[in-house]
Amino acid sequence: MNKKVIWAVIIFTFFLVGCITVYNPATGRKEMHLFDEKYEISLGNSLAKQMISQTKMVDDPEALAYLTEIGEKVVEASHRSYLDYKFYIIDSEDINAYALLGGHIFVNKGLLDSFSEPELAFVMAHEVGHICARHGIKRFEKTFGLQLVLAILGGVTDQKGIGDMIDEVDKYVSLGFSRKDEYLADYLGVTYGYQAGFDPKASLLVFERFQEIEKEYGSTAMPVFLRSHPKPKDRYAEANIKIKELMSTNTTDSSSKIKDFRKKSSK
Predict the structure, then answer these.
(1) Per-residue pLDDT reduced to its tens digit, 132-183
(2) Which pLDDT tens digit goes with each residue over 57-97?
(3) 8 Å CB contact between 153 and 4
(4) Using CA atoms, how far apart are residues 60 and 240, in angstroms rounded to an integer?
(5) Residue 88: φ, ψ to 5°
(6) Is the dihedral of CA 168, 41, 129, 66 positive or negative?
(7) For position 239, what pLDDT does the model report?
């Protein structure tokens, strides 16, 4: 048997045996993961420290308090409200926000300055949605596994070769979450924002703003956060469907499910 095939079997067995089953409250399904929640939080804390040390941050207690107040309202309505969420403001005029696994959310100053409170609440709820759905740790696990498989099956043994390979994988990962994940985060964002008391239609204003940015830059020079996300018009349409659903049905059942999950998680 080919050595590469043998190694492939070994790797597959390693991942299968090493996996743990985790219930994902955001999707309502059990999922296989390489790392548990404790590791997810630990890794998120490390990544947050690294990002803060390498990024110019805004030191404005009043602005941070405003952001945190909105964020905490959204978190309280989410599936993983028990996590220790932390909020940060990046000194950048770009309209963007980022979620790191474990509960860290970074918002650019440009977004904070130009978005209304309901619009900001949706953006924050979207990022919380990524965290609740464990998108960050899934992306990390995918990268970790891909690096190992490429290193062995590709016969990469020297340090430079491994470094080049990791750089290529990092470029892919830096584009952000998958489009499927983005749609789910939108869905959760609209839901969490609504349950937190914010107008869900603010999400439509956010996507209209993104459409304006898209037209301004053109399809070839769009910011990374637009290139890696589904089209704003498509996100607008999907969010509008969810809003109509929320407005026409009683969300008490959904809220109760979230509260029930919190009780189970605290035991």
Answers:
(1) 999 988 887 776 665 555 554 455 444 454 445 445 444 444 445 678 889 9
(2) 999 999 999 999 999 999 999 999 999 999 999 999 988 89
(3) yes
(4) 35
(5) -140, 155
(6) negative
(7) 95
Residues 29-47: pLDDT tens digits? 888 777 788 888 998 898 8
Contact 38, 157 (CB under 8 A): no
Spatial distance between the Cα atoms of 188 and 186, rounded to a whole number of angstroms: 5
Alpha helices in the chain (DSSP H): 3-18, 37-54, 61-76, 109-114, 117-132, 135-153, 159-173, 179-195, 202-217, 224-227, 232-248, 252-266
Please work out, in degrees rounded to the nearest 5, the angle formed at the alpha carbon of residue 86 by the alpha carbons of 172 and 208.
Answer: 60
Structure tokens, 254: 């959904």
Q: Between β-strands 86-90 and 104-108, what pairing exists: parallel, antiparallel or unpaired?
A: parallel
Q: What tokens does 151 get?
A: 């290193």
Long-range pairs, 142-148, Cβ under 8 A, ≥24 = 142/173, 143/169, 143/170, 143/173, 144/34, 145/11, 145/15, 145/34, 148/11
Indicate the domain borders of the chain.
3-259
